[in-house]
Give the backbone structure.
Amino acid sequence: MTVEVWTTLFVGLSFLLYIYIGWRSRVKDSSGFFVAGKGVPPIANGAATAADWMSAASFISMAGLISFLGYDGSIYLMGWTGGYVLLALLLAPYLRKFGKYTVPDFVGDRYYSNVARLVAVVAAIFVSITYVAGQMRGVGIVFSRFLQVSVENGVIIGMVIVGFFAILGGMKGITWTQVAQYFVLIIAYLIPAIAISLLLTDNPIPQLAFTFSDIAEKLNQIQVDLGFAEYTEPFANKSMLDVLFITIALMVGTAGLPHVIVRFYTVPNVRAARFSAGWALLFIAILYTTAPALSMFARYNLIESLHNQTIEEVRQLDWASKWENTGLLTFADKNEDGRFQLTPDKETNEIEIDRDIIVLSTPEVAKLAPWVIALVAAGGLAAALSTASGLLLVISSSFAHDIYYRLINPEASETQRVFIGRVMVGFAIVIAGFFGINPPGFVGQVVAFAFGLAAASFFPVIVLGVFDKRTNKEGAIAGMATGLIFTAFYIIGVKFGGMSPWFFGVSAEGIGTLGMIINLIVTLVVSRLTPPPPLEIQEMVEDLRIPESILPPGEAAGEF
């Protein structure tokens, strides 16, 4: 069978599985819709968290960015994995103990202010829409290549599928769908990585082959011969300061991502939250330790397959022709010598490769079996859709729970709250689809912007909300607003307004670190210049840090 037939089969079967799980997990009450009834077992929640966390950016784009950036691409590995550890150990248990549905819920109650809640809602929606744009682009890319439909139609198909189980099952349906999606995506990532590792190094374990074989030395020499910096040379593509700022932004942004934080509310208790965090870290590590090896293998194979090949030889490559049809791989014989050369100079380079096709094209470049190529497509869709569904629920809950129920109609019934939540999922899907068709950058770049916005808005107020009882509502509101506005202004100005990166050359992906610092300073200063929080709020913060096991019965902070 052809790749397209295998892809249709795998994608069709996986989608039927997701739809079936969504139907079986349908809910009617708000607890089930927003936090899966707090009844998800730790290991299942760990798999769901990993799937929610490992988006299209991790599956599709991260290896591509590392493949092009080399050593400097390690910012994504260090930032995202380090950030998850920071979230799991520093914040997750306290947030779970607080016992609320959403991050804006935590902010609103901890800072005893509906204004603070509203600012947090705006930040959550801003972050989530930015993030979900990257997922929809990933869906469109997979469909445009493997099912030979347009990117626009691919995004629409993805919208329909994710909308079905998000609207019907809420967080319960999304959680159990993400468990299935994790196993689809991790199998799809590991099989080609192991196969290519064996072909290139005779070692079936990518992590060991990457470390102990001579593949790195070979690639370094090829890079130098073509005029590029060595693949393993540090700071060849980004300055040391920019690498530092991007890494910190990704790290602290992780600890402020609302769609990841809400996963710790779906387990029965704090102990289960800790165990699910550990399982998630293990599940995430499987992919994240494989990605550097796959990136190097992909770079090596692409250069060997395309550089200095004649026009006729390239045209005979079925995979190259099909990716060229998508517009994500282009050739131009600029010097008219009948061959295509890959060079670091944009003026003379004759092969343009979109970073987002690296993982998806690698099995084809390595001439693996058609079913392996199709499996990677199914895995890419699983990664994109799992995260998209979690983000859509964040947007939905921000409107339905934090605005409608908390601010507009506190007497709303369970049925009304769930109905509003489902309606808002529908609106969010339309917005996500628009940005999927009109994305502002590569998947990984777009997602990095979301992390920067999360770092600049949520991280300081969450950390101070747990560990500093003197932080008050005035400080939290001023800090969140300042950090979010500054970071959004810088990102939009640099990426869309023609503004040069004026802060020591720090890129739009890294400016969230400065936004976070500004937020932290403003929050602390304003809090000290204004009255302290009420005594009951200060006592609540102190109780929040007491281990649940030593609290008297009925005194777990924030439980409802």
In short: Residues 315 and 321 are 6 Å apart (CA to CA). Confidence is low (pLDDT under 50) at residues 550-560. The longest strand covers residues 329-331.
